[in-house]
Amino acid sequence: MNLTSENTAILLDSTSDYPEAKARERFDNIRVVPLHVLFGSEDILDHVGISGHDFYERLKTTPALPTTSQPTPGEFLLAYEDLARYDRIYSLHLSQKLSGTYQSAVQAAGVAGADRVRLIDSETASLAVAMLALAIERRLARGTSDAEIEELIDRFKRDNRVVFTVGTLEYLQKGGRIGKAQALAGSLLSVKPILSCEDGVVVPIGRVRGRQKALAEFRRLFEEATEDRPGLRVAIAHADAPEWVDDISALALEARPQAEIEFVENLGACVGTHAGPGSVGFFWFQDD
What we know:
By secondary structure, the protein is α/β, with parallel strands linked by helices. The chain has 2 domains: about 10-35 and about 70-160, Rossmann fold, CATH 3.40.50; about 160-285, 2-Layer Sandwich (Hypothetical Protein Tm841, Chain: A,domain 3), CATH 3.30.1180.10. The chain has 10 helices and 13 strands. The protein has helices at about 20-25, 50-60, 75-80, 100-110, 125-140, 145-160, 170-175, 210-225, 245-255, 270-275; strands at about 10-15, 30-35, 35-40, 40-45, 65-70, 90-95, 115-120, 160-165, 190-200, 200-210, 230-240, 260-265, 280-285.
């Protein structure tokens, strides 16, 4: 089967930080299913009911940390039904080790048609998943196959990288998403942890003192893992911390002038609940 943008859709969950409105604006065959952010009994849809900026403003004054909840299987099923005209759906999700979102999608896909819906555990989160969606879309635009997309996904899982730092480990710790980085909790003071996502969980890969040294470490890791050639895709996500964006953009393009910055986004409320304000992530993937 020749897969194209006309017969194949891409479905993301909102932890990809690819807002639904932007997805529809750029590509009619991309949809986003929002997670839920709960302030007590108030249920807000991620990226739909509250913007990233408004969420972080509210977080400053809320007496208790909000909680998050994955979409129900029914919500995924409605999205698959909305895409009924497509013969194939690639359903891309954050690591199932970080959320039950993937399992909700699995249940819905069983009803919608397991052959029609191809479920992907990206083993990562946030803009890394959005970058995978664009890599698939580039292939759909010129015609592709399931085998080629599966090869891409395998290579993406092996080669994509994210490095990030947080204002405090408090949010990752409270949300239970801290993984092997737990050992860093309570010992930071002015030290910034450098974290990554490996095998679907958050892991520490270093620690530095201060923002400038964090940027220098980002650059070192980026240069170590990449070459300056066409097809190097970059993305930057921040939790209401725009002061990082110009610095990371500059270091990426100075180190690798042929790199292309695909996304610069504010982390949505769902990822932001666990990462916390002041967090910033730097993503890259070589896709020729």
